[in-house]
Amino acid sequence: MDIIRDILYRINEFTAGLDGGLSSYATMMIRFILPVLAIIILVRCSHSLFRERSESELWGQLKFPNGTILDMFSWENIIGRAKSSDVFSDYPTISRNHAALIRDDKANWKVYDIESKTGVIVNGKKIEGDIGVPVNSGDTIELGGIPLTFIAADNTDEYEQAVSRTKPGRYYKQRVTIAYLTLFQMFLALQLYIALDEQFSSAVIYSFLALIILTWSCYIITRILKRVAFEIETIGFFLTTIGLSVTASSVPSDIMTQIMFIVLGVIGFFTIGWFLRDLDRIKKFRRPIAIIGPLLLAITLVLGTNRFGATRWIVIGGISVQPVEFVKIAIIFAGAATLERLFKRRNIFAFVGLMGVCLGLLALMVDFGSAMIFFVAYLVIAFLRSGDFTTIVLSVAGAGFAGFIALTSRPHIIGRFASWGRAWEYVDTAGGFQQTRAMTAAASGGLFGVGAGNGWFQNIFAADSDLVFAMVSEELGLIVAMIAVIAILIYAVYTVRYADEARSSFYVIAACAMSAMMVFQMMLNVLGSMDILPFTGVTFPFVSRGGTSLVASWGMLAFFKAADTRQNASFVVKAPKRPKFSGGGSIIYKNEYDEEYIGENDEGNYDLSWDDNQEPQSGVNQTYEWGDPDEKFWENLDDSFWEGGNDR
Amino acid sequence: MKKVQKRSLSVMLLVIVALLGMGFYIVRYVVHGAQWAAAPFNRTIFDGGMLNVGTVVDRNGVTLADVVDGRRVFADNADVRRATLHAVGDREGRVGTGALTVFASELTGFNLITGSYHRGGDPGRRIELTIDARISAEAMRALGGRRGVVMVANYETGEILAMVSGPTFDPSNPPDTFEDGVFVNRGIQSAFVPGSVFKVITAAAAIEQVPNVFDRAWYCNGGFDVSGLRVTCPGNHGSLGIIRGMQVSCNVVFGELALEMGGNTMLQYTERLGIAGRTAVSGMQTASGNFDAAPRNSADLAWSGIGQFTNTVCPASLLRLMGAIANDGNAIDLHYMQRTGPVSLLPPRTERILSRSTAQQLSEVIEIQNRQNFPGLQIYAKTGTAQVGGGHDPHAWFAGYITNPGHPLAFVVVVENGGGGAAVAAPIANQVLQAAIGR
């Protein structure tokens, strides 16, 4: 702490000792530095995300009588005559969606009869009903009279595959990207330090320092968990940094509360991520979590505080919470499903019912913005589950009708629509007051902004939440604001891009629904405040001040990570364990931080914290250094494998 | 799985919609950004409605507004300050047409790249107005504290040399209580009953619409009857043609011409000449003039032809029309900020509102033959004494132009409830124009 004080003292000396001139020049220069850093961070993250080669994981094979072997690249595979089948076979006796072969977390496979005409026979026994029948490697599965031999990848196969797959980080070293982010955070803090009242100076420095430490801690935790990809988190921290600057500028006294919410969010991210690692656990908790959604909404409706026409807030101990933000996660969690459930009609009916209850409760809460966001999530889930375009069209029509009724019965919502697109005709009335100020502020900022903490827009009501895009545009400029927008879009493109390699449809559906929701919410926020869409008052994920929204946004990141199956990219995705050495005994390695730990090598993914399946074995303890000559296998790997990438 | 994965592409649809939305926003930002940023609630450039950066000078470099020690100061001469108030603005930004408000983005150097940002202590930009401080001060003295407006503009370039509106105040020493309407720039933001100056518009229509109008004769015995109602004329002019009718401002001639052409034709001409509706001054919309097409053969129609009935005219729009008559029918966009940059190399935007021959003939109609009251001026103009009713004195109008070599100037003078146009408004115009031609 003495060091920090010393630094603070020196900064004070530096700025106070000079007239206002120099600090104003510093602000002027930082205005140009921040967008450049933001662009570097985003380009490095997105390039790293999208440049990696698409490498599927091979989980099993089916051997046809004619010797053809077909691969299964997912845990959930449909075998059928439909072109879109995962295992496609054009034998006329095989039905379009004949059977499903599904692997669970513990490498147990089950086969399901989905929509077959002739049935599925496993080792001579026909499957009855829609119950899954366990199959083992070498078993025969007979479809339409054709006997297929099922071969499952065993632990050694999976392990060797994991070793041979490319790890992300070949192109960009994550820690260099984070260093750029740290620079961004430091410059932003300096700019705020210059701009803000002296009484908040130390709070600003401490809070940004806390954020920098948190960013690096997360990276170190990721590395300790033997994971190498950090792009998603880096983008999350970048957006969070902008959010912290927004808070520092608009309510500097609240900055420590905001830091607390950021920490909560990151804890939530790791907790949800841990939860999502296990598909069996997900299946087990689906129902309780589904019930939490409407329950939370009902509680809000009863106990909530009505503010500005909507009942969205519950005040606990002086802190306002918006439970609806968590309901978003719960609903999507309940709506996403593993493949075998997709074919059961009652499941989708249950989901439609759940969504209907939630939308009804939101209508009672007069939370029009959230209702629209929920509806987009519903559309994505419904489409991903059914692929039925007609249903979607009908849903939209139904929603349009419901929306019309909502509009005609709620005067304050009509008011918002009445002034839509004509904000400048309502400059000083409720219909256009906020939007006109938002546009003026955004234009006033130009490309580089007037400097964090130097804006006037923060005095406008909801500037730091529903109108935050304008506030960011004013203070940090259009470039940084647009990069925040593009960052959210990159999340969406990323979820689509990695949907191809996800292990379970649960992860694909959940990640897509969440990214779609984020994009839509961002759109409502940006275009609503700029009078291009009706102003509905929703938050910009990560950036808007408001604890619940921030925590929920971090929670959603865990779902994105769950869909990322690049080798060792994501702590949410389990990696195969290293096959046991014949000699037995556990091995002690030193990691790059020179800490000894028991278990597997870097890519062996022995998770100290979470893996409860593998007991360290008793026996002779050996200590290996990196590249131990005894381990021929490690020797043959090039350095980049260890480093997680070469710097550029 | 493959199916679900393929369907996930639907999310890209939303991404594309979002990108289109952002693209649309950027287009709007580029097109309207300067306008948005110039709103008076932009506190980066306005401090309590006051622009805190930038210097304004007149066409000869006389300082009209400056910032000294962070405080807005105005011209050294008190008369100049009062005369240029409505062109320059006040400290609080209450004068809507003041350069400090209208040209705020030019003064701060606003552009889409750096926005409104200016470093603390940065003095901002300097803009030059087309206003001439000396002529404006003379106009202010001529107006003599009365309510009204004096505007003088170069009709070949569109530059406004004087735009003096009364009542006014000294922006450096604002009074504790403001006169009613003191912030209104009467030249741009007001429209008045025009009275006889409107006969110029009726004449313009008649030259094109009434065959052989110059050979026609009317008989005035102090008025005429329309559908049982009397339309009066202050004079008893006997038999006369259109030129004499204009000189003596005979109501019979122009009332009957209006009846002959009909309300719709008259409306068409008022719109074409920019009299009904709005014109622009430095891109700013003027107050809207008004002309209602009265029914055929009604006394109202006759009255509308002589500038009464429901007619109103914005002084700046009439100034533009007078300039167009002088300029062979081409109306030039009026402005009071000096055009700068590459745009200034292009000729100012003009609109042909009268044919060359009509403009020529019209100028003969309004030429002032008896110049003893306007020594040294080749003057073409029309007076107006607009009855406003309610026991108030009429508005005094005088509008026209001079063709003195080197001084292509159009002018308009209005004295609100000032009395007769010839007696009240014409001497003001003479005093200002004498100053303008340097006598």
Polypeptide structure, described:
The complex is a heterodimer of chains A (648) and B (439). Chain A is α+β, with helices and mostly antiparallel strands and 648 residues long. Chain A is built from 20 helices and 17 strands. In chain A, strand 13 and strand 14 form a beta hairpin. In chain A, helix 6 runs antiparallel to helix 18 and helix 8 runs parallel beside helix 11. Chain B contains 16 helices and 19 strands. In chain B, strand 10 and strand 11 form a beta hairpin. The radius of gyration of chain B is 25 Å and the shape is globular.
Task: Describe the structure using short key phrases.
heterodimer, A: about 650 residues, alpha+beta, 6-stranded antiparallel sheet, 5-stranded mixed sheet, 20 helices, about 10% strand, globular, disordered C terminus, B: about 450 residues, 5-stranded antiparallel sheet, about 20% strand
Residue runs with pLDDT of under 50 for 5 or more positions of chain A: 582-591, 595-648
Share of β-strand residues of chain A:
5-15%
In DSSP terms (H or I, runs of 4 or more residues), the helix count of chain B works out at 16
Estimated helix fraction of chain A? 40-55%
Strand order within the widest beta sheet of chain B: 8-7-19-18-17
Q: Provide the residue-averaged pLDDT of chain A.
A: 82
Terminal-residue CA separation of chain A: 35 Å
Tell me, briefly, the overall form of chain B: globular
For the largest beta-sheet of chain A, the strand count, sense and barrel status come to:
6 strands, antiparallel
